[in-house]
Design brief:
Radius of gyration of chain A: 25 Å
CATH class of the largest domain in chain A: Mainly Alpha
Largest sheet of chain B: 7 strands, mixed
Oligomer: heterodimer
Strand content of chain B: 15-25%
Radius of gyration of chain B: 21 Å
Strand content of chain A: under 5%
Order of helices and strands of chain A: HHHHHHHHHHHHHHH
Order of helices and strands of chain B: EEEHEEHEHHHHHEHEHEEHHHEHHH
Shape of chain B: globular
Strand order of the largest sheet of chain B: 6-7-8-3-9-10-11
Distance between the termini of chain A: 7 Å
Helix content of chain B: 25-40%
């Protein structure tokens, strides 16, 4: 198990390095060679003089050879910004202030702050949104999927299958806007968009701001997961070991929950881990519809303002999350499915 | 009173193409401690008959009528709870494929202990695991204590079938239904499992219904035989009677296809053609299309299972007794 874990983590590191290389090459040399978008030009303000551009390039380290630039990027990613970089980008600032200005993921041109601190500011929204949505879609889809699977072709099952089709076909922005219009503007049940910090003494403001966006996000996943659970359960219920359980004298409930469900859930755990990893990298459409300033919105802002380091930083951050989720899923799978041997 | 009495059992499945009558009027009895063999080729309704008796078929997709009396109780009328008390306690079952019949995510010990605890609510966990180890010893699995911690995938097919047998016998059932328990195993393992069943039969004193398509197994193991064809019983009798004086042309075919019986011919005999569709079964005798002795009456009139008065050997065939008793018909190859 330990060796497997180490190997998995090493592979994960390799993937991150590959992504970082891709980010560096695409947002660095390639972008510059294929367009006149010199990052220094964006950073230097309107109608900069050549001297100003040169100064900025030096500040950002863009005057160095390409290989050294990448080396710097990796160095920064692993050990944090070097003293020289700190000296260059935040001279005379306190350590705290400097952390806000330069970070491991680099520094945003447009916002003049470190990508780390920008993501840190936004991640709370995204995590809250993703987790509340995940709780919603799991608690709804698993029971519906099971009920639907044990009574195939029943009225309940037919309604479910139709509902799944509708749920999967509704685009987030459409359903989100409808929900906003009726439940917020017309009937004023939920607060208008935005986000409240989670407070453990009174979590309601936090939750009430999240209910609409999270249910909008959860709708699509609920539809997908009902299908997954239903399919998995139907397969499991037809398995020989379920017949064995019944032949032993196990009741229907025991057969379903003890014998079939655990087998049916195996693939779903995998998909859930990956979905959560992807969501934590930003739920762009939902965040946009409900005016939530999360990581998804951050990436939109970065792309639309041609903020190259910020875009690259968010991409790298999302890659780390997805790779991390993959590792967690693989390890969890090995624990819950005895047939997977880790060696 | 027989232990199990099945009479006029009908089981049908509703499919998109129509109703399939998989079991069509099957009757037989099993006495205490007796071994009954049910033979016939794949799809003739052997397994469905037993699953109907255990009420293990989905009530949504199938329909069962007739009567099944086990130890004085009408199983088809029993409540769901009542049926659960009978399954695994009074009647236990082992299946064809040991590779898929055990739950892959639970340890062998857990699955065996579950069988014990389902029917002994007062039993402690430790007692249930003791019983599980005891049963593994009974089916000849070495170092049973360690084996309890194994998952099914860590065992071979033969071992898993032993575990299935151990699980079935945990509660000393009065009747054991073995549904082709050796079909999925290799030949040496088959012999071991058969040997085990023979040994356990005397030890546990359960009656056994042994479903197979292997006449050799029937000869070795069974007291009585029921021969099924296309959802119906075509011949029924004691093993000695049936092997010495087979009455139905289908049984002749089954016996003729046994290796060893017809040493003189180089090729094994096989019955030409294939069984009829049970969606639209032919009128008259269902075997008529494949029968070498077919007569006009066979195509229109269905033969009824019957025999001489007081003769337990029954056959459903229109052929005259002289023809059926003719050795050259019964064992054409041997006498050739």
């Amino acid at each position: 198990m330990l060796r497997y874990t180490i190997r998995r983590v090493l592979w994960g590191v390799l993937v991150i390095v590959a992504v970082s290389l891709a980010v560096f090459v695409l947002f660095g040399p390639v972008l510059r060679a294929r367009s006149d978008l010199s990052p220094a030009r964006i950073y230097a303000g309107k109608n900069p003089s050549d001297a100003q551009i040169a100064q900025v390039e030096e500040n950002l380290g863009l005057d160095k050879p390409v290989v050294q630039q990448y080396g710097n990027m990796i160095y920064r990613l692993v050990w944090g910004p070097s003293d020289a970089e700190k000296e260059r980008l935040c001279p005379g600032a306190t350590e705290e202030r400097c952390q806000e200005l330069v970070g491991r993921l680099g520094r945003s041109y447009a916002k003049q702050r470190s990508v780390d601190s920008l993501i840190g500011e936004r991640i709370g929204v995204t995590v809250s949104l993703s987790l509340v949505a995940a709780v919603m879609w799991l608690t709804i889809s698993i029971p519906i999927g099971i009920l639907s699977a044990i009574r195939p072709r029943s009225v309940f099952d037919r309604i479910t299958v139709t509902g799944v089709l509708i749920g999967q076909s509704l685009p987030i922005y459409y359903f989100g806007l409808l929900a906003l219009y009726f439940l917020t503007y017309k009937y004023k049940i939920f607060p208008q968009g935005g986000y409240e910090q989670l407070s453990f003494t009174d979590p309601w403001p936090w939750l009430s701001h999240l209910i609409l966006p999270a249910s909008t996000l959860a709708l699509q996943f609920t539809a997908l997961y009902v299908r997954l659970v239903r399919g998995g359960m139907m397969d499991a219920m037809g398995e020989d070991y379920v017949r064995t359980a019944r032949a032993k004298g196990a009741g229907e409930r025991r057969t379903i929950f003890r014998h079939a469900l655990r087998n049916a859930m195996l693939p779903i755990v995998t998909i859930f881990g990956l979905d959560l990893g992807i969501l934590l990298g930003g739920a762009i459409l939902t965040e946009a519809t409900f005016g939530l300033r999360g990581v998804g919105q951050l990436s939109v802002e970065a792309a639309s303002s041609l903020d190259v380091p910020l875009t690259g930083g968010v991409v790298l951050f999302a890659a780390v999350l997805i790779v991390g989720a993959n590792i967690v899923v693989d390890l969890a799978y090995a624990i819950i499915d005895p047939r997977i041997r880790l060696s | 009173m027989p232990l199990l009495e099945v009479s006029d059992l009908h089981t049908s499945f509703s499919t998109d193409d129509g109703v399939v009558r998989a079991v069509d009027g099957v009757s037989f009895t099993v006495d205490r401690g007796q071994v009954l063999g049910i033979v016939g080729e794949s799809g003739c309704g052997k397994s469905v008959t037993m699953l109907s008796i255990m009420r293990l078929l989905s009530a949504r997709q199938s329909q069962t009528t007739g009567s099944v009396t086990f130890d004085g109780e009408d199983l088809l009328a029993a409540s769901t709870k009542g049926m659960q008390k009978i399954r695994g306690k009074e009647i236990a079952m082992i299946f064809q494929d040991p590779m898929t019949s055990l739950n892959p995510v639970y340890r062998i010990g857990w699955q065996l202990a579950e069988a014990a605890r389902l029917h002994n609510p007062g039993m402690s966990k430790a007692e249930a695991y003791d019983r599980a180890a005891e049963m593994l010893t009974a089916v000849g699995i070495p170092s049973p204590r360690e084996r309890l911690a194994n998952y099914p995938h860590e065992m071979s097919g033969g071992m898993r079938q032993r575990v299935m047998i151990a699980m079935a016998l945990t509660n000393d059932p009065k009747l054991l239904i073995a549904d082709e328990p050796t079909t999925a195993l290799d030949v040496t393992t088959q012999a071991q499992i058969l040997e085990l069943i023979r040994k356990l039969r005397t030890e546990f004193d359960s009656a056994i219904v042994f479903i197979t398509h292997d006449m050799g197994v029937v000869a070795e193991l069974c007291d009585d035989v029921v021969v099924m064809y296309a959802g119906k019983v075509v011949e029924r009798g004691t093993v000695t009677e049936l092997f010495r004086n087979p009455q139905h042309p289908y049984t002749w075919g089954l016996l003729g296809s046994l290796p060893g019986r017809n040493l003189r011919s180089k090729r094994l005999y096989s019955i030409p053609g294939s069984p009829p569709s049970l969606l639209h079964p032919p009128s008259g005798c269902r075997f008529a299309k494949r029968c070498a002795h077919v007569m006009e009456v066979c195509l229109t009139e269905e033969p009824i299972l019957g025999g001489m008065a007081n003769d337990p050997h029954l056959v459903a065939c229109h052929l005259a007794p002289e023809v059926r008793n003719d050795k050259t018909n019964q064992f054409p190859e041997v006498l050739a």
